[in-house]
Amino acid sequence: MSMEKVASKQYESKIWPDLVDSDDSDVENEIDVDKLPPLEVGPGENRLQHTYCLWFSRKGTQRAASDYSKSLHVVGRCASVQQWWSLYSHLIRPTALKPYRELSLFKQGIKPMWEDPANSKGGQWVIRLRKNKIERAWENVCMAMLGEQFLVGDEICGIVLQTKYPVSPKIIQYAFNGETMPGYL
Asked: Where in the sequence is the signal peptide annotated (predicted)?
């Protein structure tokens, strides 16, 4: 067996095959992200300004908010640049995601849904891209968010990569109204 296959098997998540390939009913996410202990950042690691959660969801065409909430699954968290790259290097690439799948990178404590108080009175920016441009764009937007490179970085809640073929994939950036979450400004 090649080293690549061994490495991919070693880090293969039990949750990914079901979430990516299955269209069975959703299983509610059992992890309460808000109750998880803070992530440790080791010596020599570069701490991020915020801790981030990476989410996965399978979004159908006709979903109510409660159904969407049940489809959200935390894939991982990161509080340092090194933790991010460790997580990112084992993700399925955007072009390999099936239709109606989403990857979301949000500040910890904010869920990637409009019903979250941080998002409810905010807005969004949407970028539609050709499929052959989505991988580089997703990586660049993730890096810009993690590195606080947006001019209004404190107002950005998170970003979402959404696949809805045959429609072009899109990247959505969520921003919140400072009156709803003054602690974040």
From this structure: none
